[in-house]
């Protein structure tokens, strides 16, 4: 990946809404007919969330080329995923979107609800780090990025792997570094199978990432649609060229498909494990996990009712020095990182032996309401509890 942004940015173009409407009709029809629809995103899908792009007139790389101070970057941990992000989540959940390839490292696609197996993050994720020895991944609710004390290629974050003790590295791809093989290969494979590719908010000037939509554009029988305010090097390969903001396009596309754009809900998965030890004592472990089992850090502390001790470091382990009978209730007070002003949440874990309890925690930043779901793996039953908490 090379920063070759010119001092004078490519001119931006905006087509009239009437023109965009006509192209949306065609794109919606193509999406309905497609069997393997993929989307390729760039910085343009996040600009309405307050995160600047790179090659626009006020883009960070454009300003750098001009010797000017870069645009103040919004806190990506507090940014709300855009209508484009949420539209893609809905298309994923309905089985319409088969794979998402992204050049963005702001973490918004994953936070919006895109599943880990459904996305290729070609340039990394500022919230994801991995072990250089065993490749174990960790998702964090903080910027898991190296300070690069020894240069741009020093990716050490200063933390150690909980599984093997190896050094953890950030996943950001800096200039002149290779793209992650897993993500790049998944991108290539899905491009080979795709009969429709939509590019959203990318200038398509960064190699080798731009080769993925190019595969679709060159393939017989496949269609390529590009939505970007600036021209791209492969415009001549596309069937539909839309000069529009990503949100404008996606809101109209979802309307034509008669599909809703869901609101952003912050979703967390929590596992509570109670292990019986000697003398009928118990060890309670609270762990954040992703849908694929990857450890996720999103808590600041955990406290068990009746205990003075507040556990503030992972793993969150609490020792219960009394006998627990089946049906006993463990009330856990959870403190979150609070990027979206999430207040503390109490969950009540019913003890039923050495069985894990999986909790789905959903927080709506618009109204401050928590919804919690407990799913026990042995029964697949779900208990739903709604907790309304006023925003701070």
Automatic annotation (TrEMBL):
MF terms in GO: histone deacetylase activity, NAD-dependent; metal ion binding; NAD+ binding; transcription corepressor activity
PROSITE patterns from the UniProt entry: SIRTUIN (PS50305)
Residue ranges of domain Deacetylase sirtuin-type in the record: 17-260
Coiled coil feature spans: none
InterPro entries: DHS-like_NAD/FAD-binding_dom, NAD-dep_sirtuin_deacylases, Sirtuin, Ssirtuin_cat_dom
Annotated Zn(2+) binding sites: 131, 134, 161, 164
TM stretches of this protein: none
GO CC annotations on file: nucleus
Keywords annotated in UniProt: Metal-binding, NAD, Transferase, Zinc
Active site: 123 (proton acceptor)
EC number: 2.3.1.286
Pfam families, sorted: SIR2
Keyword NAD: yes
Gene Ontology terms: biological process: negative regulation of transcription by RNA polymerase II
Keyword Zinc-finger belongs to the record: no
Family of this protein: Belongs to the sirtuin family. Class I subfamily. Belongs to the sirtuin family. Class IV subfamily.
Record-given protein name: protein acetyllysine N-acetyltransferase
Organism of provenance: Penicillium hordei
